[in-house]
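Q: What would this chain look like folded?
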Amino acid sequence: MSDTSVIEIVLQALLLVAKVAGPLLATSLVVGLTISLIQSIVQIQEMTLVFVPKMIAVALVVIFAGHWMLNQVVAFTDQMYALIPRLLSS
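A: My prediction, written as structure tokens:
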């Protein structure tokens, strides 16, 4: 196994993590920012008020995009298993 193949595998894994975690993180960011903006307008400074809407929004993203996320991870895993014989022979 050469250095370039290891770097390529790590790069693919990092891109997969970014693709899978991106929708969850973006949703959490948007909901948190929106609730914080509303809190500053109405001057309610309760920290636990942000938690429940964020949790609901992230759960909805997992429900709607979970199948795609799982397919991405399974495809990457299949690709890595198919790559094992080639890496061992070199």
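The mean pLDDT is 92.
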